[in-house]
Amino acid sequence: MVWVVGPRGSGRTTQSKKIVEKFGFIHLEPKALVDKEINAKTDKGKGFEAVRQQGEEVPLKDVIPIMEQLIMTNRGGIKGIIIDGYPCDTVEAKMLEQRIGPCDVIIYLEADQQICDARQEQLISSSPKRSQNKLDKETKLLREQYNNKMLPINGERDVNEVFEDIVPHLQVLIKNRGERITIGR
Asked: What is the pLDDT of residues 107-137, one digit of tens each?
């Protein structure tokens, strides 16, 4: 399993999509899964919408069952799992490892806040945002605790240059663990 983290606007989703395209991984983006539930007007989606209307983020613990369902639906041929934008802190990291499985590598896209802000201005998102100071503090703790799995990548460069830095690391990961992963249950 690969986690792609970094500041908003660092290119997490862009790189996640490129990884999915090249390696055939399943792309799990919790915020997009929440949006999908809200747009489908499911019971879960109505609850998620109520949380968002209060200006809060939907807790990851409430999204994990959807992630688990997607994984189980595809478990026969999973080449890998990429979790886009999460975990944001060590509590979420432990939750993901307990419920979904251990992380193999964390791609941390480093980017200056001004660059990220400029990129974010081009995007429209209805989801609430964590304060950047809180996010920086939480991410620092995550980086310290998972330092041995952390792959820092300069996310300020051209999309393809960033991806070229990521590819060799994932090729080694796949070579060492095999083409497909096994999902229990």
From this structure: 999 988 887 888 777 765 544 555 555 556 6
Domain membership of residue 126 (yes or no) is yes
Rounded distance, CA 48 to CA 128, Å? Answer: 12
Are 9 and 111 a contacting pair, CB within 8 Å? yes
Place of tokens 């989606």: 45
Q: What is the CA radius of gyration of the chain?
A: 16
Q: Which residue has the tokens 């663990």?
A: 177
| The total number of residues written for the chain in this structure | 185
Residue 165 burial (10 A CB sphere; 0-12, 13-18, 19+): middle
Domain range spanning residue 99?
2-30+77-177
Q: Rounded distance, CA 67 to CA 71, Å?
A: 6
Q: What is the CATH number of the domain that holds 84?
A: 3.40.50.300
- What's the predicted TM-score (pTM) here? 0.85
Q: How far is Cα 132 from Cα 109, in angstroms, rounded to an integer?
A: 15
* Rounded CA separation 83/16 (Å): 8
Rounded to whole angstroms, the Cα distance separating 105 from 147 reads 10
Q: DSSP string covering 139-164, please?
A: HHHHHHHTGGGEEEEETTS-HHHHHH
d(C-alpha 67, C-alpha 65), whole Å: 5
